[in-house]
Amino acid sequence: MVGNDRRVHNRTAMSAKVRVTHEALGEFVFSTRDISDGGVFVVVDTEPFTPAIGDNVQVQVQGLPVPAPVLEMVVVRKTNDGFGLQFADQ
């Protein structure tokens, strides 16, 4: 780790569409910026998606030839352009 970077897993740039469902905020479709063994970063432009750190969400990759599994994730980081989501079983 370098400086303030506390990341455990290496990131891989990846742009994919994902459906993110939050119990109180509803359902949204976002693009990913990167993915790792620990989670994914979703880019939020102008959508009214404002979860709190620690909130649970369900995430499903869109646009595949077969339905992708729905994954339980936790909001762990917020930046100006999106949110870091960690796999719930981490």
Number of domains: 1
Helices, by number, come to 0
User: N- to C-terminal separation?
Assistant: 19 Å
| Strand content bin | over 45%
Helical/strand content category: mainly beta
Strand order of the largest sheet: 2-3-4-7-6-5
The CATH C-level class name: Mainly Beta
> How would you sum up the global shape?
globular
Number of strands: 7
> What's the SSE pattern?
EEEEEEE
Mean pLDDT: 90
Segments where pLDDT lies below 50 for 5+ residues?
A: none
In CATH, the architecture is Beta Barrel
The biggest sheet amounts to: 6 strands, antiparallel, barrel
Please state the CA-atom Rg, rounded to the nearest Å: 13 Å
**CATH-assigned fold name:** Thrombin, subunit H
- Helicity range: under 10%
InterPro entries: PilZ_domain
Protein name: PilZ domain-containing protein
Domain PilZ: 5-88
Which descriptors would you attach to this protein?
six-stranded antiparallel barrel, Thrombin, subunit H, globular, 0% helix, single chain, mainly beta
Description:
The two termini are 19 Å apart. Helix content is 0%, strand content 49%. 16% of the residues are buried. Strands 2-3-4-7-6-5 form a six-stranded antiparallel β-barrel. The protein has a single domain (12-87), classed as Thrombin, subunit H. It has no helices and seven strands. The chain has strands at residues 12-13, 17-22, 26-35, 39-43, 56-61, 71-79, 82-87.
